[in-house]
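Example record

The entry below shows one chain as it appears in the dataset: sequence first, then structure tokens.
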Amino acid sequence: MAHLVFFALVFAGQLIGGFSTQKLPPPNNRDILTVLSVDGGGIKGILPATVLDYLDKALKARKPNADLAHYFDVIGGTSTGGLITAMLATPSPDDPTRGAFTPAQIVDFYKTNGPHIFNESRPGNGPEFDGEFLHNITRELLKDTRLSQTLTNVVIPSFDMKTQKPVIFSNYKLGDAPYLNALLSDICISTSAAPTQLPPYYFVNDGVEFNMIDGGIEAGNPTEATVSEVLQHVEYSEILVLSVGTGTEKNNETFDAEKAASWSSANWSGPGFGFIGSESAAMTEYNLASLFVGFQPGHIYLRIQEYDLNHDFSGPVNVTQESMNGLEETGKQLLQENVVKLNLDTFDQEKLGITNAEALDRIADILVGERQRRLKRKSMEKRGRPFVETLRVLSDKTQASGAILRNLLI
């Protein structure tokens, strides 16, 4: 009997450890749906990549072979966030079960290539930059990888100028819209084609033509689009959403009622009034906070954003060494700052009693527990043998970590 118990323990350990580099099994209605979303913002992608580097290292401390794509059911990104998404989800040419890039390598990518992407000596015909270097380096990095080949599901919004409609490149859509199974390089160039800064991007896939510009036109923060996309196709019992921003400046302008009353309609697109004609960032965060915190306390929604970004680092095309180093340092400092939660009545940001780093550590525990539980279930299902007790223990640990984090975020 002792030998049998020993064998069962060893076998369970091998099952959990042996699948550590495989794709995350899909969730069912008893699982925690895990979502990562990264905002757009040009070179400011350094900031969320720095934050994600902390989470990546936290996961590797628990599971040395961990990659972010192994732990999230879906990763969404717009513009520079779309590029980060693709770099995390693209299989490595050396080991197709691993991600091609870690967040630390993505930070290095930005700092090395940013000055070449946003090079003022290469002006475009209309836009500020010609985009040639970005196109070439993106194709070099992502090679011939297509949307269907990503390590996990991705959602990358863009916008088609010809049809005047958003285009969401999503693994979930491929069954009904196979023409969306484009090269990741084409998708990333499309979502990054910021008007006035980079030229529109034209390509054809599966006989369908695309005339694309930056996904930030419709979804600078892609969290809503990502969550909406996945919830159309997946059953779940709980959801964990990690949304990482690229930083925004604090509005310190003094309101002048007399001046505002005399403004023409054109003035309302100026500083402090850029929301006219599109959903404001505050409303996007309100909708998400309401859905995942206000009305659904069983869910976890963590937004990590720098709301008082140094003006010297706030330009999406500012690729001076000082600015890029400042963005990386801002990301590191943000980890030590307290989590902020949107007050749904006043729209003020309120600090909670937990740092962003501590919250990410809790999320790492949840992600590891959730992955172990799914892998265990998958293995037992293949053998036709339930392993209920082990699943219960893993589930209890995951739920305990989730409950602690939820209580801290409420």
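Notes for this example: Residues 1-21, 268-279 have pLDDT under 50 and may be disordered. The first strand starts at residue 32 and ends at 38.
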